[in-house]
Structure formats: C-alpha cells, structure tokens
User: Fold this.
Amino acid sequence: MERVYNKEMNVYEASIDRIEYIFNNFNKIYLSFSGGKDSGVMLNLVVDYMRRKNITKKIGLMVLDNEANYTLSLEFMHRIVKANLDLLDVYWCCLPITLPCTVSSYSVDWQCWGEADKDRWIKPMPKEKYIVNLYNHDFDFFKENMQYDEFWDKFGDWYADGEDCACLIGIRADESLNRFRAIMNQRKITHGGNMWTKKNTEHVYNCYPIYDYKTDDIWISNCLNDWDYNKLYDIFWKAGLSVGQMRVASPFMSESKSSLNLYRVIDSQIWSRLCARVSGANFAATYGKQLNYRSFSLPKGHTWKSFVKFLLETLPEEVGVNFKMRFAQSIKYWWRVGRGLDHDTITELKKIGVDFVLGDKTRHGNKDKYCVRMLPPDHLDELKRHPSDVTSWKRFAITILKNDHTCKYLGLAPSQEQAKRMKQIKDKYKKL
Assistant:
C-alpha cells in the first residue's frame, strides 16, 4: 500500500483532519489516557475539537491506573478529567491486573491493586465517582489478576459492544523504531486505507492521530493552545533529563525503568512505597545502567554543582542533611588531606586543566601513588581513566541518585551513627 502524506499541511492540521475522520466514521470512540505528554496532547486535541464542533455525545476515556504513578501525574490526570466530564465517559480502572515487571530477580510481573497486598498499596484507592475497582465494575469480561494485554483488548471489545470502535492512542513514530513500525507496517489491516489506523480486535481499531508529531510539536501545541499538561516534565527538565529519558509509564516496565531512580528525589514518599511494594525496585535504580557515570548529560546552562543543589532541595530534610554533611566531609578531606592517584591519572588531570596541589608519594599500598589535594571540579568527563576515582560534583550527584546514604561511591566510610545503626540491624537479624 502506498504511503501518502500531505506535506502542505502542518502536523496540527493533519491531526485535526484525522480526528474529524474518526468522528465521521465511528459511532463508538474512546481514548487511552496515561497522563504522559503525548496522551495529554491527544486528549486536549480531541476535547477542543468536540467543543468547536459542538459535539455533546460523550466519548470514552480509559485510564489503567497502575498504582505507581507520580503524585504530579495523578494531579494532572484528575485535573483534566474533572475539567471535561461533560464530554467524557470515564473508566479510571484501579483493578487487580498483572503488569510486566523488569526490575525484580524474583518475578517477571506484579499485580497492581491486589487485595492480598492491600496493606502495601503504594497509594490509597481513589474515591472519585469515575473510579472503577474490584467492587463496582460492570465488566463481564474481567477476572482478577488477568494480564495487562488481555484486559486492554477485552475492554475495547466490551466498550465497542458489537459496533466498529476507534481507540485513540497518543503514540508517535518519532519515539522509537517499534512505534515507527507500528505505523508503517504494510501487513496490518487499516480503516479506510489510513496507515495511522490498525485493526486490533474484531470491532476495535487503534488510531494514532498524532503519529507524525515531533517532540517539539508536543510542547509547541501545549504552549500555543495554553493547554494544561503534566508539570512533572518541568521537574524532569530541571533535573537534567534528556527528552528521551522523560517517562511516566509504570516504573517497573522496561520502557521507563531507566527513570526509576528519579522517584526517590522527586517523589520520595512514593519511592519508599515502591521499594516495599516490588522487590528489586531499589536494586534496579541503584545498579541500573542509567546510573553509569558517563550516561548522564545536562541541559544548557545547568552545571553538576547546581544539579546537586537541586537534588538536595527535593530530598526529605533528614536525608538532605545527611548528604550535605557527607559531601562537606569529602570536600574537606580532598582539600586538606588529599588522595593518592597514579601518575597517568595525574597527567590527564593536568592535560584537561584541573587545578590541584601535588604532594609526595603516599605510604599506602605499593607506594606508587602521589597525594593530590583539590577542590571538586564540576565533572571529569574528559578523563579517560575511571572518573569515579576522583572527586567532582558529578560524582556527588550520582551518589544521591544511587540512594547511597553511606556515600560508598565517594570512598567514604560510614559515619559513626551509620555504623552503629548497621551493627544494630545485623545483631537484630543475624539469627534469622
């Protein structure tokens, strides 16, 4: 099938054209809403179109609440839903559904809103009238602990009720190769020959009206139309994440676990419950590849020193005080006492212009290192040798993101209070 695109039409006009096609060709329409930037724009586009066209017949809105959303995401989602209840038939599903889990060594999935885990739920069951849970749903297809994919397909057929139905999904081909393939797949069954549609079940077609939006188009749309959006993205940006790292999906899925570590500094209460809820969450955040020294980058105008200050401000007071104390200890030690570095590392530090004071050979180990005293540079990305051996503000930032309260990553021994607490814990559980 030939792929045709009208290049004289901008992406906004093209998306409106597709939405108009959907409303003209489907009696049943519902939108899948995750609270992310793309589904947010998708929802805003649709409700704006309905208001301009004076369409009063409600469309469905399906939210699959995975129990593990950021607080800011939930605030945005409830806010935009409540602002458009006159146009939306909302199914905010808080049901015991099995979801993929890629952070645990013990299980490949986990069950959100499971009754057996009620005392460990990450957040309380919402109480809005549009909430659908185990005790008030009308889904004749639902069974407890059904798989995510199965629920998705059967919900669509249930909502379609025997008629052709459009499921609007805010995915973009620009985001990943898999999503590009989903749009350009020549073997799929489409509706009316439109490549932005795909027959998913007997009665339901997945529709992707914003498939050709770039990331810039998403944020330009929010700005020009003064649309509400998830303010979590502002925090992501301030925290130095690249656009590709900004994810609001279930934190235990492979697509978003790279940002799992940010829960601890952005939403610390949710983070503590995540760790208690799913085994392996802390391990994935601490040892995941996303925490490699060289994998982080900063936005323009942002330094590692300012990033550390940002992280410290978002932490609970007690945790922040601990990190500040330990960082001050590290800075004083490097400047007053110094650490032993080998000749090659010292040569590289000179080459990249790092200021330091060179002392005599150390008396430790093989006695082949020289004592170096220095204040922390912003980063040591140019250092070919392992940069985590030398102090830097970037090293402090990664220490926070690793949730390394004892600051082993800085080469510090536990404080007296931390050592005492560790001994008490070991004594308490050594017989188990």
Observations:
- Residues 104 and 420 are 30 Å apart (CA to CA).
- Confidence is low (pLDDT under 50) at residues 103-108, 280-289.
